[in-house]
Amino acid sequence: MQIFISHSSKNADYGNALVDLLTSVGIAGEQIIFTSNDAYGIPIGQNIFNWLKNRITEKPFVIYLLSPEYYKSVACLNEMGAAWVVENEHSMVFTPDFDLDSPEFKNGAIDPREIGFFINNEDKLTSFIDSLRRSFSVSKNPVLINQKIREFLKRIDLIKPSQSIPEISFTSKPIIQEESKTNRVEKVEAKPSIVKTESLNTSKSQLINDLLNGKLKDEEILMLHYVVETAKYKLGTGWQESHEVENVKAWEDIHELDNTLSQNYSTVLRRFEMRKLTTVSDVTSHGNPKEVMLLEEVQEDLLNLDDQAKDKILETVAQHPKKEGDPWF
Asked: 30, 58, 79, 114: which one is catalytic?
């Protein structure tokens, strides 16, 4: 059996600490799947969606690292749903800032009446480690266990909750009162060291205006939808392009879309570059681009889409259903 840690990438610090705790008490590293750490992640060349689907259907022990960020991630909720369908044995671990009374948790796939525990609860951690002995090789040395848990708790105390801007799902329209919008703008302007307001407004206006005025091609709009749905703001290019295209194909299949985006992926990246929406975020040892990232102001645009922009995107998506006879990716 393996352990699969389902988590938001924004909580990677908590996840890495948890991985280190598990390995320090005797669980083999090769038994742990934690995608935010390359040492425990997805093998190079594997399709991320298919790989995760296969691992979940192999019925690993799933640790749900639940947080406010987890319930705002489409990818995390897909993982939760897939694991729940095949009835994986699991445990719920809450980050310190998680609200047990949140409607997302109470109405989610996991029964909120099940017993979980906060990641900084020493007694519950000890019981959790002890329960893993049923399926995994865990040290029987109580002194070692206590020592590693204390080290773990000190590490957890140093982790600050994520301060990132919340993701907005296309499946629901947030209810925001007019005064809340005003407050939000004031907060952005109050932090010029983090966000350059002038640049943000200009870029946002250009991208959204192009979207609403029909200046974006369908494949470009589908790319925006892909980015928001997967919360993936870094995209493979160069030698990594083929891997990204495979991810796009799997995404298209899951959402029953035709292959407009996957067939035009390279063209979309070039168009985004010409529109000055992206920047190179990683290069090979020879200095060739292998990854591009949407600019921070563009990410802000996508996270704060108004209803009109969302409707325009969904209208385009609806025009690209997968047709009978389309290939299985």
From this structure: 79
Distance CA 228, CA 98 (A): 23
Digit-coded pLDDT (tens) for 109-127: 777 777 789 999 999 999 9
pLDDT given at position 53: 67
Provide the whole-model pTM: 0.49
Contact 32, 40 (CB under 8 A): yes
Q: Judge whether 122 counts as a catalytic residue.
A: no
Phi, psi angles (nearest 5°) of residue 116: -125, -175
pLDDT, average across residues 135-152: 92
Each residue of 237-279: pLDDT tens digit? 988 888 888 888 888 888 888 999 999 999 999 999 888 899 9
- Cβ pair 313, 224 in contact under 8 A: yes
Instruction: Please name each of the domains of the chain with its CATH number.
Output: 3-157 (3.40.50.10140), 178-317 (1.10.10)
Parallel/antiparallel/unpaired status of strands 289-294 and 278-283: antiparallel
Structure tokens at 98: 């998680």
pLDDT (average), residues 76-104: 81
End-to-end CA distance of the chain: 29
Q: Quick one: pLDDT at residue 60? A: 85
Rounded to whole angstroms, how far apart are CA atoms 170 and 84?
A: 23
